[in-house]
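User: Reviewer 2 asked us to show a designed sequence for the structure in our supplementary figure. I'm pasting the structure tokens here. Could you produce the per-position amino acids so we can include them in the response letter?
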């Protein structure tokens, strides 16, 4: 079954709601959790699920993502038919870029045809979660489904951001609405809706035929949620697969986050700092793989004032140095340097950020290669922050990659 499955990971989205973190990188390449990239979670799920043939469809500002795939995911053996391959738009079907999720796969139908696979697993590269895809593939076959869609219950108030489905007693999907203004509630649970997670299993023959038909439709936006799936319901067996309901090697944690906005991204990172996080990165039997740079251990040292560097309830990556400053409830990526008498609270600092003596940062995200000058304050004066930086609706300040402060040479 797994040997007859081709995995397609959609990783070309612009991620405009994550600006400025996506100004120079694709959304799946955005750093997460102190050492990972967002795409690492979907790829790690593939690794643990026994899926070894993976096409990553890239498009928007893909250099950082391609480099990460090369450095961190060149682990399969092509002589055994295994691969993680980045596939940029090649304009094989016309002179245009990918025009939607379905069009991205349509433009690469030749890769599906030559794969010899019987079914296709379609994933998004921009969600944070653990999932055993092998269990979903088994259920797909057991139910004789033409299409299977992974689904989970979400609060009704938030369901308008998802594809919302209705199912019958046998979990067959009877209705699919993409981002409806008035989502349908789960029967018996008026405060919940059943949402699509953007994870699909198709039979190869049906997917090829459906994409070819969709390509001919002038009224189509060539999107799975808006066009493909709703049209399949009448004539094909489309099954819902309940996320977290599988039984397998790992107790499901039922954790899934769409980190498509700055506030959602920030909150998902902060959730890692809870005493019992919903997503346990320290789970030995389902580790999250990523590129591992060669870094020395993180350390704390006394600052010039004699203050001891400290960190409390924080994630501190390799190569980080806290030299007399204080870091609380924060996440430091590799090679961050915190100078004397610095106060960091509720911050996410990307690679090679340097924070000068006496600076104060809270409720902020600082992208890589930024030097914060001494005595700088970020996260304390909303109006002053808005004049210089992006500030999310939830009040999270984002300092863009490579930002240069006026008082630094």
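Assistant: Here is a per-position design you can include in the supplement:
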């Amino acid at each position: 079954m797994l040997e007859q499955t081709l995995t397609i990971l959609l990783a070309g989205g612009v991620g405009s709601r994550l600006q400025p973190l996506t100004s120079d990188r694709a959304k799946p390449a955005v750093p997460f959790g102190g050492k990972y990239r967002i795409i690492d979670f979907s790829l790690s799920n593939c690794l643990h699920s026994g899926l070894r043939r993976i096409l990553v469809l890239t498009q928007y500002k893909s250099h950082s993502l391609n480099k990460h795939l090369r450095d961190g995911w060149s682990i399969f053996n092509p002589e055994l038919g295994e691969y993680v391959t980045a596939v940029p738009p090649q304009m094989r079907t016309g002179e245009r870029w990918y025009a939607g999720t379905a069009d991205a796969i349509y433009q690469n139908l030749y890769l599906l045809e030559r794969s010899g696979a019987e079914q296709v697993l379609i994933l998004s590269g921009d969600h944070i979660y653990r999932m055993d895809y092998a269990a979903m593939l088994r259920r797909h076959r057991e139910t004789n489904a033409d299409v299977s869609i992974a689904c989970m219950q979400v609060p009704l108030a938030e369901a308008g951001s998802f594809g919302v489905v209705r199912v019958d007693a046998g979990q067959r999907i009877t209705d699919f609405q993409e981002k409806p203004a008035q989502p349908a509630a789960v029967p018996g649970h008026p405060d919940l809706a059943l949402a699509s997670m953007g994870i699909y299993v198709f039979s190869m023959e049906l997917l090829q035929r459906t994409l070819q038909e969709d390509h001919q439709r002038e009224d189509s936006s060539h999107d799975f949620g808006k066009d493909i799936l709703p049209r399949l319901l009448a004539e094909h067996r489309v099954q819902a697969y309940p996320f977290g309901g599988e039984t397998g090697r790992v107790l499901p944690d039922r954790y899934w986050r769409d980190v498509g906005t700055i506030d959602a991204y920030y909150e998902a990172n902060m959730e890692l700092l809870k005493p019992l996080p919903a997503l346990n990165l320290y789970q030995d039997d389902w580790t999250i793989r990523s590129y591992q740079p060669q870094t020395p251990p993180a350390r704390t040292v006394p600052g010039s004032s004699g203050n001891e560097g400290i960190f409390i309830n924080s994630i501190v990556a390799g190569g980080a140095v806290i030299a007399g400053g204080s870091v609380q409830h924060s996440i430091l990526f590799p090679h961050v340097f915190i100078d004397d008498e610095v106060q960091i609270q509720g911050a996410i600092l990307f690679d090679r950020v340097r924070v000068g003596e006496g600076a104060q940062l809270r409720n902020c995200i600082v992208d890589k290669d930024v030097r914060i000058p001494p005595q700088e304050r970020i996260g304390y004066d909303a109006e002053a922050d808005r004049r210089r930086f992006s500030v999310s609706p939830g009040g999270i300040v984002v300092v863009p990659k490579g930002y240069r402060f006026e008082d630094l040479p």
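For the response letter, you might also mention the following. The first helix runs from residue 39 to 49. Confidence is low (pLDDT under 50) at residues 246-251.
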